[in-house]
Amino acid sequence: MKHITIAIDGPAAAGKGTLSRRLAETYGFYHLDTGLTYRATAKALLDAGLPFDDEAVAEKMALEVDLAGLDRAVLAKHEIGEAASKIAVMPSVRRALVEAQRAFSRKTPGTVLDGRDIGTVVCPDAAVKLYVTASPEVRARRRYDEIVASGQAADYDAIVADVKTRDDRDMNRVDSPLKPADDAVLLDTSEMGIEAAFQAAKRIVDAALNRN
Ligand code: DC
């Protein structure tokens, strides 16, 4: 079988992460959540007490990110996500991280990368491109349920507002805005549970793999 990359894009909390991990397991591919590379860069700046408006400093941190050391549990924090979406608008930060992500995408036998610009910028030649989305209210509800299930208090209205702000920042930035690639298959999971969404994604990937 020739080398395959599956590109998965979509807004925050659309379910890309879970789908990507399950697809990678199913096909025996390596998986990279590219959001974690932006988060790791942001965390390095936060830890060092460095400012978020100095692109040269942020680029230096981006160049030092180790893809093998990305720890979801550490990087999941809300303030790291906020900081990540601010440095993700910087072209030189993106260039540094995209280069590392492209190198990862070439791992054999295949890879699944998820993020905002995988099908459009990082891996435009990916064999399969999925754009996973859901309404802001559904995504906020899922995040709310997750927080409450972990025993913490959550404010649904604040989460909806946060999801919309994050969408706005991701979709309207000048460099690599979030949008479906022309050849991406759209998967709206608003009305689907995770198992139905996975089965739908797998059908799309299988159909694309059969064409290749
Ligand atoms: O998916 P996430 O919340 O972990 O992403 C964190 C931030 O990084 C988010 O604001 C968008 C940005 N990001 C990006 O610009 N490009 C990617 N390929 C992945 C994430």
UniProtKB/TrEMBL annotation:
Transmembrane segments: none annotated. The keyword Transferase applies. Residues 6-197 form the Cytidylate kinase domain. Belongs to the cytidylate kinase family. Type 1 subfamily. GO terms for biological process: pyrimidine nucleotide metabolic process. This is Cytidylate kinase. It catalyses: CMP + ATP = CDP + ADP; dCMP + ATP = dCDP + ADP. It comes from the Bacteria. CDD domains: CMPK. Keywords: ATP-binding, Cytoplasm, Kinase, Nucleotide-binding, Transferase. ATP binds at G10, P11, A12, A13, A14, G15, K16, G17, T18. The gene is cmk. It is found in: Cytoplasm. GO terms for molecular function: ATP binding; CMP kinase activity; dCMP kinase activity. The keyword Transferase applies. InterPro entries: Cytidylate_kin, Cytidylate_kinase_dom, P-loop_NTPase. Its main location: cytoplasm. GO terms for cellular component: cytoplasm. Its EC number is 2.7.4.25.
